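Lab notebook: predicted structure, single chain.

Context: the supervisor wants predicted structures on file for every construct in the current expression panel, including those that have not yet been purified. This is the next one on the list. No modifications to the sequence; it matches the entry in the shared construct table.
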Amino acid sequence: MSKLTLFYTLEQLDSMKQLWLPPQALGEFLMPVQSPFKSDAARDRVLDDYDALLARWPVSYESRFIDTEFGKAHLIASGNPTASPLVLLHGGGGNATMWFHNITALAATFRVYALDIIGDVGRSTGARPAYASGGHVRWLAQVLDGIGLGQTALAGASFGSWLAADFALKHPERVSGLALLAPPLSSRCV
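Prediction complete. Output recorded below exactly as produced.
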């Protein structure tokens, strides 16, 4: 079986940018601007499940928080600290633990940073930026600065792929590779 490469060049990504939903349209399909949790009890259940998954995390990891202008960003770091970096961005309605089944293979090659995207159901805290504001890209840049990454590969699923692509278009010098899994596309492409 041949190995499939999911990384795009920035030129390929730039030529596809009109295929993406505009950021303001995403607000209709993603979670509300308020807390992603319907109640304190719901938050507690989700975070208990988060902790249970981390207790079974198949490789050694470090749980860290990075201060940003939007609040504290949480990440799970795994893999050799001297390996090439790879930042993982989950889909909407999820968190960094979505990478549980992939982390062993990824951490064997990369220093992996699985982020809890701000405003979603993970451990990151603070105000969710409006989708059309560019705030998610600023948040991600601040997280990468806090980790000490001038350049990294990005991999995202669904909303995470939109964020990875938007970041790559605005900061191409900071992106060494890009993997987009199930990116949201415009209805013209479906």
